[in-house]
Structures are given as structure tokens and as C-alpha cells.
From TrEMBL:
Protein name in UniProt: Peptidase S12 Pab87-related C-terminal domain-containing protein
Domain Peptidase S12 Pab87-related C-terminal: 8-82
Top-rank lineage group of the source organism: Eukaryota
Organismal lineage: Eukaryota, Fungi, Dikarya, Ascomycota, Pezizomycotina
InterPro entries: Peptidase_S12_Pab87-rel_C (IPR021860)
Pfam family, one: DUF3471
């Protein structure tokens, strides 16, 4: 809820194609693929189709994805808490 309440923009500030590409971590061992499909910005972890999420404008030129609990469970993603 806090993340959704902090959202400040409804639409990206640039054309969607300005955000597309393949983005690697510093070690170049992990990447995100960002692409425009049908007027919607999407992200894939490692380019894997099953790991695709729709991106939503959040603040300025930043984006987020807000999968539901059911969506995460369907994709077999779980939150695990360690410690107390």
C-alpha cells in the first residue's frame, strides 16, 4: 500500500522505446530485458518469457511492477523471512 500511495505519475515522461534494452548488473551475470509490446512496457528476468511482468510508471523515469500474491504464487515466487 505504501508503494502504491507514493506513486506520482500515471504515464512515463518519455516515449516507451526510450526505456527499452537489456540491462546488466555490474558483474554482467544477471540482466533484465525491457521491451515495448503493444504500447505497454514489459520486463523479463534473464529474457525468460515465464518471468515477464508489466511495468507501471512510478515516479519520473522510474517504474515498478506490482504482482498480486496469487500471481507470485502461480509463478512459484515466495517471500521467506529469516530471523526474528
Amino acid at each position: 500500500k505504501e508503494l502504491a500511495d507514493s506513486r506520482t505519475v500515471e504515464a512515463p515522461t518519455r516515449p516507451l522505446d526510450a526505456y527499452t534494452g537489456r540491462f546488466y548488473n555490474a558483474a554482467e551475470t544477471l540482466f533484465l530485458e525491457i521491451f515495448n509490446e503493444g504500447g505497454s512496457l514489459r520486463m523479463r528476468f534473464f529474457g525468460v518469457e515465464e518471468e515477464e511482468f508489466v511495468l507501471y510508471s512510478y515516479q519520473e523515469d522510474s517504474f515498478t511492477w506490482l504482482p498480486s500474491h496469487d500471481e507470485l504464487a502461480r509463478r512459484e515466487h515466495y517471500v521467506i523471512e529469516f530471523g526474528s
